[in-house]
């Protein structure tokens, strides 16, 4: 999912930030996506991604976060959003475990969506056909 999102984002001309958990994955990102600067690749094992993104964007933040991080790293990801940004959560674990979310983030007027990918893959052909025909999303 992450690599597909990176490909699509770069194709659309977006500035991309990503996180990795190992030096090998960092090398893979650098080799596969050479247009992503080293300073845009953060650590997925701690909350330093927040400082990285805010520093690189001069405290503006990013417009969209596609998140698969949990707990305090999820909170750090939310803090990376600009005002009126869009947060897409693709992990079910935090939803199913009913983990708390710091509601002060709503003061940034962000949009928060839970994307349950298994529902997309398990959807009926009728629903998949409908979704493929949608060309405007509000």
UniProtKB/TrEMBL annotation:
SMART domains: PKS_ER
Protein name: Fatty acid synthase
Gene Ontology BP terms: fatty acid biosynthetic process
GO molecular function terms noted in the UniProt entry: fatty acid synthase activity; oxidoreductase activity
CDD domains, per the entry: enoyl_red
InterPro entries in the cross-refs: ADH-like_C, ER, NAD(P)-bd_dom_sf, PKS_NRPS_Biosynth_Enz
Domain of life of the organism encoding this protein: Eukaryota
Gene3D superfamilies on file: Medium-chain alcohol dehydrogenases, catalytic domain
Pfam family, one: ADH_zinc_N
Species: Ooceraea biroi (Clonal raider ant)
Domain Enoyl reductase (ER): 1-137
